[in-house]
Amino acid sequence: MDNFGFPDLRRLIETREGPCVTICMPTHVFGPEEQQDVIRLKNLADQAELQLADGWLRGPEARDLIVAVRNLPNEYDFWENRSHGLAIFLNRESLLRFRVPICLNELVVVNHRFHVRPLLPLLSSRDRFYILALSQHHTRLFEANQFQVEQVDVKGLPQRIEEALALDGADRGMQSHSVMRAGKGKQSSSFHGQGGVKDTHKDDLMSFFRLVDEAIMPVLNNETHPLILAGVDYLLPIFRKTCHYKHLVKPQLEGNCDHLRAREVHTRVWPLIEPLLSHGVKQAAAKYSGLAGTEKVTNDPRKVLSAACNGRIETLFIALDRHIWGECDPMGHVLELHDEQQSGDQDLIDLALVQTLQYGGRIYAVSADEMPTAEPLAAVMRF
């Protein structure tokens, strides 16, 4: 399986050196269906070659470009480690391919830009969240969704409390005061603390976690996705007192996570965060319904495209299994709408989501029964 993250998405949506070929298909993780997958890929490559030869390239050029796709089954390591879906993005400059944990429908699109919508469930706002795995000796921030998890590179994120606070191995875990020993006229030290964690050590932890908070806040500053904590139980309430992120959630994964890989942390966190994420899409749909009849919402593709290209969309809902084929100019003016895909068409839903993402809008890729309207495209406006 290959990770598909926001850097990959940005690379794809910024590529406009056409012709851009997008091929999607379901694949099988293992079993006797390998030959079926090879045949399916060959047939899709044939379709892509025909589309390229229809106004994009001369026949021999189209054939040469598609050779890279036809050769994929010959790459043993790549082909033998398939997942549930395969997405291929090809132009004259590059070939990008992703084995993804979602089943993709067969699709071939040739246009001036890549067709990214099939992979959107991997990045949908409805499933995005952050995990902060905390300890005194290992701190990691992850960005995740239902299907995958990636560690975020956080500049200056402190790892070891001793180094961050320059404790130099000193025992800061105990406080003491002098008391008189009965009958001897000598002093001795009496140590105390609270709840098993010495007061001075709590102060150190507070100082350490303030540094952690200061490091992650520039990364999370403009985000609204939930942050869930993972770590030893007595550490987490101390961090909560220092955290400035407004979307820190109550559920938490308790236990030492230092030895866990990113995927193991994700597997344990997902059952805790999933109910909150489902609630989020329902809230967004309720907001849309509450604004129905006003200029703050629309399900008209022409209005949605215009708003998307001008950075006006706050939240965009798209139906996963629907398409709106047509043509649109760079300003978002829809020139034509077609019931079926025609040569040179682009999926206007795909264009709307690309523009919305570029302007920092929120995307909810949902099933038809989760859409706030009967249309496959709906938007809540910023202004």
Quick overview:
The protein is of the alpha+beta class. The protein has helices at residues 6-14, 34-53, 59-70, 76-80, 161-164, 199-220, 236-242, 262-290, 301-309, 348-358, and strands at residues 20-26, 85-90, 95-100, 107-111, 129-134, 140-144, 149-151, 175-180, 187-192, 227-231, 248-254, 297-298, 313-319, 325-328, 334-338, 346-347, 362-366, 377-381. Strand 10, helix 7 and strand 11 (248-254) form a beta-alpha-beta unit.
Describe the structure.
- Helices cover 33% and strands 24% of the residues.
- The chain has 383 residues and is of the alpha+beta class.
- The chain has three domains: 6-121, eRF1 domain 1 (Translation, Eukaryotic Peptide Chain Release Factor Subunit 1, Chain A, 2-Layer Sandwich); 129-277, Nucleotidyltransferase, domain 5 (2-Layer Sandwich); 291-381, 60s Ribosomal Protein L30, Chain: A.
- The strands form five sheets. It has a five-stranded mixed beta sheet, with helices on one face. The protein has a four-stranded antiparallel beta sheet with strand order 3-2-1-4, covered by helices on one side.
- Strand 5 (129-134) and strand 6 form a beta hairpin.
- The two termini are 40 Å apart.
